[in-house]
Specification:
- By secondary structure, the chain is α/β, with parallel strands linked by helices.
- It has one domain (8-255): 3-Layer(aba) Sandwich (Rossmann fold), CATH 3.40.50.720.
- 46% of the residues lie in helices and 15% in strands.
- It is built from eight helices and seven strands, in the order βαβαβαβαβαβαααβ.
- It has a seven-stranded parallel beta sheet with strand order 3-2-1-4-5-6-7, sandwiched between helices.
- It starts with 7 loop residues before the first strand and ends in a 7-residue tail after the last strand.
- The relative contact order is 0.14.
């Protein structure tokens, strides 16, 4: 029996990286899993990996910035599995690394649309469904960029600070109704997004490891699987007294 046996979990941005690792971890702990991403091939691959390991998964292609896509995801999840108990709002983009005064408006608007509006829309749809179930647990993916600033990443930093704020508000409003809401704030994690940020920041002169490992007191960047462990634990009854928290998982990055 896993921590989430009999539960239904939903993960956005599940085609790769933290989203894929989280979906696999949910399934390994006994949950049936609904997946979403704009990358259909990657999402299908994640669902296939879960099924190959004996789990049950549904993939629904969609953009979290689109209200109709979010509504469809939750509706199809409930139609297939009957309920929604856990959700990980992971979908996000990094945008361009450019000083604030030079940031294109379209870049700012797209980053906010995916990273912040997307979490807002998912929270609304998830909470409405969880209220029908009698409760649930939600984890939003913020970032250490939701706790401190990063030169060149103003839209991303603004979006992730917003995610942490939404998390606190949702927790205050719904904890007494049985819904816990937390966010986690990863530092450098071995993903395609981090590779893109490293490449943009150094013009390709340094590898991701060369740039990011020294920034973490633990001496290395993290893995998607390490982040997935925290997400799934927060969705389990073992974290029953935790809500409204913005939790760093960063190898000591923000402790410096």
């Amino acid at each position: 029996m896993g921590m989430l046996s009999g539960k239904v979990a939903m993960v956005t941005g599940a085609a790769a990286g933290i989203g894929r690792a989280t979906a696999l971890k949910f399934a390994s702990e006994g949950a049936r899993v609904s997946l979403s991403d704009i990358d259909e091939d990657g999402g299908d691959a994640t669902a296939s990996m879960i099924r190959e390991r004996g789990g049950d998964a549904l993939f629904v292609k969609g953009d979290v910035a689109d209200p109709s896509d979010v509504a469809e995801l939750v509706a199809k999840t409930v139609a297939r599995f009957g309920r929604l108990d856990c959700a990980c709002n992971n979908a996000g983009i990094e945008g361009k690394v450019v000083p604030l005064a030079e940031q294109p408006l379209e870049n700012f608007e797209r980053v906010i649309a995916v990273n912040l509006r997307g979490v807002f829309l998912c929270l609304q749809a998830e909470i409405r469904q969880m209220l029908k179930n009698g409760g649930g647990a939600i984890v939003n993916l913020a970032s250490v960029a939701g706790l401190i600033g990063f030169p060149g990443l103003a839209p991303y930093v603004a979006s992730k600070h917003g995610v942490n704020g939404l998390t606190k508000n949702a927790a205050l409003e719904y904890s007494k109704l049985g819904i816990r809401v937390n966010s986690i704030c990863p530092g450098g994690i071995d993903t395609r997004m981090l590779d893109s940020l490293a490449a943009q920041s150094t013009g390709g002169k340094l590898t991701t490891g060369e740039l990011m490992n020294p920034l973490h007191p633990i001496g290395r960047i993290g893995t998607p699987e390490e982040v997935a462990e925290l997400v799934v634990w927060l969705c389990s009854d073992r974290a029953s007294f935790i809500t409204g928290a913005n939790i760093p998982i960063d190898g000591g990055f923000v402790a410096q």
